[in-house]
Design a protein that fits this description.
The complex is a heterodimer of chains A (589) and B (356). In chain A, 33% of the residues lie in helices and 24% in strands. Chain A has 589 residues and is an alpha+beta fold. Chain A has an eight-stranded mixed β-sheet with strand order 5-4-3-6-2-1-7-8. In chain A, α6 packs antiparallel against α11 and α8 crosses α9. Chain B has 356 residues and is an alpha/beta fold. In chain B, 41% of the residues lie in helices and 19% in strands. In chain B, α11 packs antiparallel against α12. The termini of chain B are far apart. Classes of the chains: A alpha+beta (589), B alpha/beta (356).
């Protein structure tokens, strides 16, 4: 972006677009179609989140001719006021930067306009936009194109239309593209978007399939708060722009008013240390700004506000992961782990991670990594992303995964979904496809991922236990009864009572997890008293007294605790099934 | 219901009824428990037994599967039916927990039942896929056909050029020998050579019974040879290609196989003689050859370790073959004309081993 800013007024928008196709993400027909959907859907989600609306989004991609696709996206967001439509869809021309920090999907103010322009250049079909705001009686249908000579949007027609909703926006773009499936496809993007936005409902119609994704949580995330930038998060260009925008005021006042965490006193001392006391802001030279920035960097401030971040949330992420991956029948979903908020270069950030393990996930392939920045999925440039690097740098052998090549992704039936939320996610490039390896973020990713990996390790140990338990129960609940039934049928005799045999075969106190509930059953032939300890991220215990032979009871542990912990019991190893033995802590009375 | 099968079920039932963990016990089918008995020259089971207790899920499952098979056999008996091993495997699809993972597993379990009961699978109404051998020669036998009639057949005069095909069950209840006018039995590996000998009327000219083993002989073929040898006192001579795999065909006819060690007595014919093609034949008759490949060489080395080949004749032949690095087919004898095998080769070799 920097490269074009100084000359943007002179370069025709069309020319600019051609030069920057790659940067804008329109470098192949396949990616162009993908980007058009992505830009429209990102806009819809952002619009809803600004107003605390639960998004309901319809996406339709249809093939209109050879390599010609119509992309239609409809939302239930606030709509765009009639007089702002042109500006909103021609934003790339204005390019005004708002100096506030807020967690957004990271629009460059270009995305949707770029899609409209790309469509126009490849098919000549103008964009159609239908908008309705809450105050409007009717909706308005705009047919809009971008006048490449004047570098401005050009409305071809506006007419009122009936649309029976409170508010919303529909956009239709017809462009040349290629529809693909599988990795880096529209479907993958929408599914991952749904995962990171569990409060959203999607109706998806693709050329080869229809997909319905219902929201898995009913509360919209809190509306992100705008905060002024933290002085440590600013670069020279930003500093110059901010100061020049309010050049009628003295420098101290500008610093105090336009940045967060800068008190009057601190502002004064910065100006003094920079040797700029009483200097007319209009006359500040490049050197003056350099010195000012240096002093700002050396000054200590309170950390930035962290409540401006909008995490997916533990509970929402957990439900969302279950809804998204249930078709793989995973053996386990880890409890989501959140680390932060922390701060890098004046920008608050936090990490959320969840692991999905086992079931039908492929065992012989590298694990699948789902990367998210501010709730939007990153599908490209996986190798150079901080998230991938942080995962690869962990020694996965320690957690029971093979890692054929050191510093590469481990192999196994595992999905790691990782979300980095920040007022300013540090991307490696303007295409915003990979997160840069910033030390503070790498450290936070490392601890978050290790916390998830520990859970997986516990899960895998539990899995081994579980198989053992299930095998025994299948023996006593299915195989032995069938042996009894079959042998008596052949002989024409009565079916024998097999409880004594079951007791002999088992001779254990058996712990069994059924749908997140922990059950205990006494097969030892005598009364048992013991203490049960759940060890996971936290510890829970329960005492059981006088459990009679063949008595079965449900233990009062929370589902989350049962799922994520291992069971320890103060009974000797030989008479335990599905639990580890602990030294006796509880004497029979 | 067959008594021996009923006894197995009854034991399981009584253990359950008495509150004991059910088990089945059978001779260990581990390699280590299969011994080459030098006295009788066949493979036999040793004394080692294994017990499968129903306290382990896998053993309990195999007990359950065994019950399903026994029940199935019982049902077949009531309906006067038989089934192939493969049919039973497919029928087991409906046996819920008793379902087999593969046909290997179900075949193995039928062998287990044979080991436990000393019944043959044919007596349990189960039969293999493969058809038995073709036979041509002056021998008369009776076979009970599917109508239940006793049918008298002379294997030279009542059959076409393809010969009499022996059924899967060649036990006395099915086949009885009536009369014979032959001096020996010649078991032939390949179809091409069998047809050559038939066309050249070798059976009549040399008073022999020709048996086409169709490669590695089936159980019923081996059992048929065993009966011809034991009951009619006919010597059995084996005529195969000259390569390590054909040597194994001879070994299996003569000494039995590890898989069928429990029934070696009725399958093996330890007095059989190998006539050729030997490695010495290759040199002596200067036969057209192929080079031994890696697998052939490995097989020959394995045979040097095999107790069945641990006699000077075989040691010498195997070492010769390794040394010349060559193998030859039966039909390589055609180098000297179509009649060479019947006019020269076989008469010479048969005289050498004292059959003629």
């Amino acid at each position: 972006m920097k490269s074009f800013e100084p000359t943007r007024k002179e370069v025709s928008i069309s020319e600019f677009f051609d030069k920057n196709r790659q940067m804008l993400g329109f470098d192949s027909p396949q990616k162009a179609l993908f980007m058009a959907v992505k830009e429209a859907v990102d806009n819809s989600l952002d619009a809803c989140s600004d107003m605390g609306i639960l998004p309901e989004i319809t996406v339709r991609v249809s093939e209109e001719g050879k390599d010609i696709f119509k992309v239609y996206v409809e939302d239930n967001g606030p709509g765009i006021p009639r007089n702002e439509v042109e500006e909103s869809f021609g934003k790339m021309l204005y390019g005004s930067r708002f100096f506030e920090e807020r967690q957004t999907r990271g629009q460059q103010g270009l995305g949707i306009s770029a899609a409209i322009l790309y469509a126009q250049k490849t098919t000549g079909v103008p964009a159609e936009i239908v908008t309705k705001t809450e105050g409007d009686i009717t909706a308005y249908r705009f047919v809009l194109e971008i006048d490449v000579k004047r570098n401005s949007p050009n409305t071809l027609s506006v007419e009122p239309v009936i649309w029976d909703v409170k508010s919303g926006l529909k956009i239709t773009i017809t462009l040349k593209g290629r529809y693909t499936t599988g990795r880096q496809s529209i479907e993958e993007y929408l599914r991952e978007t749904a995962l990171a936005n569990p409060h959203s409902t999607f109706h998806i119609h693709l050329p080869d399939k229809d997909i319905e994704i219902a929201r898995s949580v009913e509360d919209p995330p809190p509306i992100p708060i705008s905060v002024k930038p933290h002085p440590h998060g600013i670069d020279l260009g930003d500093l110059i722009s901010i100061v020049r925008e309010s050049s009628e005021k003295p420098l101290e006042t500008i610093l105090e008013q336009r940045f967060s965490r800068v008190t009057k006193q601190v502002a004064k001392s910065i100006v003094e240390k920079s040797g700029l006391s009483g200097k007319d802001v209009k006359k500040m030279s490049r050197d003056d700004f350099d010195r000012l920035l240096k002093v700002i960097r050396e000054t200590e401030f309170m950390e930035p506000r962290k409540d401006c971040l909008s995490p997916i949330g533990s509970d929402a992420l957990f439900r969302s992961a279950i809804a998204t991956f249930k078709d793989y029948h995973p053996a386990y979903f880890s409890q989501p782990v959140t680390r932060g908020p922390f701060v890098y270069s004046g920008h608050p950030f936090l990490i959320e991670a969840i692991a999905i393990y086992g079931g039908d996930l492929p065992k012989e392939e590298p694990i699948k990594v789902l990367r998210f920045a501010n709730r939007f999925p990153l599908l490209y440039q996986q190798g150079s992303c901080a998230i991938t690097r942080a995962i690869s740098s962990i020694n996965w052998n320690q957690y029971g995964f093979s890692q054929p090549v050191k510093d590469q992704l481990p192999v196994g039936p595992l999905i790691l979904a990782v979300h980095v939320a920040s007022t300013k996610v540090p991307f490696t490039s303007e295409a915003k496809e990979a997160i840069a390896q910033v030390d503070e973020i790498m450290d936070a990713l490392d601890t978050a991922l290790k916390a998830v990996a520990r859970q997986i390790k516990t899960m895998k140990r539990k899995e081994a236990h579980k198989n053992q338990v299930e095998e025994k129960f299948s023996l006593i609940e299915q195989i032995l009864p069938e042996i009894a039934a079959k042998s008596s049928k052949i002989l024409g005799k009565e079916v024998p009572d097999i409880r004594p045999v079951i007791s002999k075969v088992m001779n254990v106190v058996a712990f069994r997890e059924i749908n997140g509930e922990l059950w205990v059953e006494n097969f030892t032939g005598r009364q048992q008293s013991f203490r049960v300890l759940l060890r996971g991220e936290k510890e829970f215990s329960q005492d059981v007294k006088d459990l009679k032979p063949f008595q079965k009871m449900k233990l009062n542990f929370q589902r989350e605790a049962v799922i994520s912990s291992e069971v320890y019991v103060d009974l000797p190893e030989p008479i335990l099934l599905g639990a580890y033995s602990l030294p006796k802590v509880f004497e029979n009375e | 219901m067959n008594e021996k099968l009923e006894r197995i079920v009854n034991e399981i039932y009584e253990e359950l009824n008495g509150g004991r963990i059910p088990k089945v016990e059978l001779k260990s089918r581990n390699k280590g428990n299969i011994i080459f008995d030098p006295r009788t020259s066949v493979w036999r089971y040793g004394e080692e037994t294994v017990k499968r207790y129903a306290s382990r899920a896998s053993s309990a499952k195999s007990i359950l599967k065994m019950l399903y098979i026994i029940d199935f056999i019982d049902e077949m008996e009531k309906g006067s039916k038989t089934s192939t091993l493969r049919e039973m495997y497919y029928i087991s699809e409906g046996w819920k927990l008793g379902k087999f993972e593969s046909q290997d597993e179900s075949d193995m379990m039928v062998e287990d039942l044979e080991v436990m009961t000393t019944l043959l699978r044919e007596e349990m109404r189960l039969r293999p896929e493969e058809s038995g051998a073709s036979v041509i020669g002056n021998i008369t036998l009776t076979e009970i056909n599917r109508k239940g009639e006793k049918k008298k057949i002379n294997c030279r005069d009542d059959v076409g050029d393809a010969g009499y095909t022996i059924p899967y069950n060649v036990e006395k209840e099915k086949i009885e020998f009536v009369s014979e006018d032959v001096d020996f039995v010649l078991a032939i590996e390949t179809g091409g050579m069998f047809d050559r000998l038939v066309e050249n009327r070798f059976d009549e000219r040399m008073r022999s019974l020709l048996v086409h083993t169709k490669g590695q002989p089936s159980r019923s073929t081996k059992r048929f040879l065993n009966r011809l040898n034991k009951e009619l006192g006919l010597p059995v001579v084996v005529f195969t290609d000259g390569d390590p795999w054909s040597f194994r065909i001879f070994a299996s006819i003569a000494y039995g196989a590890i898989k069928t060690a429990h029934i070696s007595d009725i399958l093996a014919t330890p007095t059989s003689e190998f006539i050729g093609i030997t490695a010495s034949d290759i040199l002596r008759y200067d036969l057209p050859t192929d080079k031994l490949n890696e697998r052939d060489v490995e097989a020959l080395h394995a045979e040097l370790e095999d107790p069945r080949f641990n006699v000077p004749f075989w040691k010498g032949e195997i070492e010769t073959m390794l040394k010349i690095g060559k193998k030859a087919e039966q039909q390589a004898l055609a180098k000297y004309g179509l009649d060479f095998v019947t006019d020269s080769y076989l008469p010479e070799k048969l005289s050498e081993i004292g059959i003629l």
